[in-house]
Write a structure and sequence with these properties.
The complex is a heterodimer of chains A (536) and B (201). Chain A has eleven helices and 18 strands. Chain A starts with a strand and ends with a helix. Chain A is globular and about 75 Å long. In chain A, strands 1, 2, 7, 8, 9, 10 and 18 form a seven-stranded mixed sheet that branches. A six-stranded antiparallel sheet of chain A has the order 6-12-13-14-11-17. Chain A has a three-stranded mixed sheet with strand order 3-16-15, with helices on one face. By secondary structure, chain B is mainly α. Chain B has a domain of 118 residues. Helices cover 45% and strands 2% of the residues of chain B. Chain B has seven helices and two strands; from the N terminus they run αααααααββ. A two-stranded antiparallel ribbon of chain B has the order 1-2. Chain B is globular. Chain B starts with 16 loop residues before the first helix and ends in a 38-residue tail after the last strand. The N terminus of chain B is likely disordered. Chains A and B meet through α2, β11, α8, α9 and β17 of A and α6, α7 and β2 of B.
Chain lengths: 536, 201
Amino acid sequence: MSDRSSDIVIVGSGVAGSLVAYHLAQAGLGVLLLEAGPRVKRGAIVENFRNSAVKDDYMTPYPASAHAPHPQFAPPNHYLIEKGSHPYAAQYIRAVGGTTWHWAAAAWRLLPSDFRLQTQYGVGRDWPIDYAALEPFYCQAERELGVSGADQADVGSPRSQPYPMPALPLSWMDRRFTDVMQANGYHVVPEPAARNSRPYDQRPTCCGNNNCMPICPIGAQYAGVVHAHKAEQAGATLLADAVVYRIEHDSSGAIAAVHYKDAAGVSSRVSGRLFVLAANGIEIPKLMLMSTSPRYPHGIGNSSDMVGRNLMDHPGTGVNFLSQEALWPGRGPMEMTSVVNLRDGAFRSQHSAKKLHLSNASVTADVATDLIVNKKMAGPGLDRQIRDRSARKLIINAFHEQLPDPANRILPSREHQDAIGIPQPEIHYSIDDYVRRSAADTRSNYARIAALFGGTEIEFKDDFAPNNHIMGTAIMGDDPANSVVDANCRTHDHPNLYIASSAVMPSAASVNCTLTIAALACRLADHLQHQVKVAS
Amino acid sequence: MHTPLADCDAPAVPVSPQRRRILLAVGGIALLAAVGGPHWPTAYAATAQPAASTLAQFMALSTWLTGRPVLNAELGRRYFDALAAQVAGFASQLATLESLRQGHPQQDQQAYCDAIDASGAAHASLPRRILAAWYTGQVGKLPAPDAQHDRSSPPQPDAAAVVIAYEMALMYRPTADVLTIPSYCRDVPGYWARQPQGSAA
């Protein structure tokens, strides 16, 4: 393999890396985008889904490649080496376009208070930037991804511009849910979503395939591959199956090159002027910690010892019950409304903020399997029960904010390597009392909500399920002694190494992090363009 | 692998004649591709042929268990093959089940399944496996039932199960007038805002 060179070298082609690549290629810079995984096709993913024996495992349509494995659970491939008190069974996709191949397209902004958790509530960390600094880039990210939302709904995040598209109409169930909840003191809003309510950016209007996860069959929902393709069209070079395994520095401490292996394990070196790591909150710190040298024995960018630490997600709990009324989940996109009045308040000094959301995924397959296997039903009663329960089974889940804790961390495993000899991620993770206190309160809310709908067969899920929002592991801050990147997402230790990822987020807040990833990527692209102009 | 097939039972989803033609055309191509060309009847005949009477017993029992007037014969053949490969003594268990059914013609499906369950015999789980195959479209290890029978979430499915049908799995029929089969589009954008017609049960 011949070695390469590029102005800008970006590691990872998900929403973050592809957005940065697109903007810098448009600005006329030479951009090389290195993606560990293969190129995948939407049609093949849809067929994989339909042929999957475990359709509610969203990883099954994305078979892991041997050279760039990602976590799989049915059956488990044990890619993530779990060492903590609580397993962190995160999902992510190593393929061109990244993990937004499967997501709910929830396109939330953080709240202004999410940026100053320490100042306002005495817990966690403040960001080195405030909401106002990110707001213009939230607007830009919403245009790039194509976000539909309800301008009249107060979601607590001030807007300088309207949503690019109006919200999709709520499903009958979501409308009824909103009405009942609003009448009982909850604040329920339509969820802003990177999903088309009209033709947008050459992609069609959502027609309710109810399959946002694991794959939107028609591309009405945004995926990172949109910007991977746009970056290529703008002149960027995208290399798939290029697994970066080492970051090389020069004698001044600047980054000189990255080294990658192809699918056969053959190594190449890529030199460049600026480097951007955009390979998610697990693979980025793993790569930085693997890249040791006599000068940086603890890894690249790690003089603070914070690389890989402060792993945060949104530990999830849930409830399901049969509502009295036939509301029919499963019509329209898989998620449409959220309860937002528990996202902020003085309680955050004591326990987690949270967002509750109603699932609009079809429950028919779950219901039918349960009736046949558990309830041992047969005959005409079976069809009646499938219909009745499909109409009435409601599922509500919650995200709980997690505080940055240095003990929750990612390390490159010393014992386990993948097929081309690269260490697998080792994870140390636990759930603290800040989350547990909040989850107890969430359970009370679940019980109250179930009662509002005359719920029967109420089942609580207290498992703190991961939600694949991998944050904090290359944390942003002003102090180089306790953070990895500065307010511009540049590593404190290396003048030409940047990070585009939720890994930089100092607070997890209570909402899906993708729009914040995209806004930070747009802001970084803007910053890098100025940097390059000043330098040249 | 499941392959789309022309459905000889009632259509699962109302579709326009034009869309139906497209689906059939696509299904036909996929079927040919799956068996490697136009000589498939010969190729099929070369595989181990179940005794016609055993397959007939399976279809008769399936038709009665599912309460359907008619079931898709090709799907039936595939469920039969998959079950035969996974269940030791499948043919003899099937014969036992058929004779039990014919010996108690007054029993409905629920009573029949309950009685066989209670017997604890080797064939006790087979009626439910047959039912699960037709309803879920998959043949695999039957998931272990939960300790709490009133638990409403499903047990973990078998990741190694053979997937034979998706959109033609019977579980989607009872809601076909209201719900899409995930990944398919059933109506115009925004249809979901209307209150569904018809009762729940």
